[in-house]
Amino acid sequence: MKLNLSSNNWILLLTLEVDTHTGSGSSRIACEKARFDFTGFEIEKEYFLKQEKRFAMHLSMPRLPGM
């Protein structure tokens, strides 16, 4: 969604991802990197646990400053 771009108006940026099939968690990782809010759903317990482990590994990786 975008508002009028004249200098006196704000631009509305949506930074929310809703993923109804979280699966391996790729969208979740991409959202974290882009600093988006993420809400995901996964009905398969095996996939949910695997993406939780993958996301934890992603968060534990060292990062360059400013990234």
Structural description of this entry:
This protein is of the alpha+beta class and 67 residues long. The protein has a domain at 23-60. It contains 2 helices and 2 strands; from the N terminus they run βαβα. The protein has a two-stranded parallel ribbon with strand order 1-2. It is flat.
Structural class: alpha+beta
**Overall spatial form:** flat
Number of strands: 2
Q: What portion of residues belong to β-strands?
A: 5-15%
The pLDDT mean sits at 85
How many helical elements?
2
Which radius of gyration do the C-alpha atoms yield?
Answer: 16 Å
- Please state how the strands of the largest beta sheet are arranged side by side: 1-2
* Helix fraction by DSSP (H/I, runs of at least 4): 25-40%
In short:
With 67 residues, the chain is of the alpha+beta class. 37% of the residues lie in helices and 12% in strands.
Descriptive tags:
alpha+beta, two-stranded parallel ribbon, 2 helices, 67 residues, 2 strands
Write the SSE topology.
Layout: E1 16-19, H1 26-34, E2 37-40, H2 45-60
Parallel strand pairs: 1-2
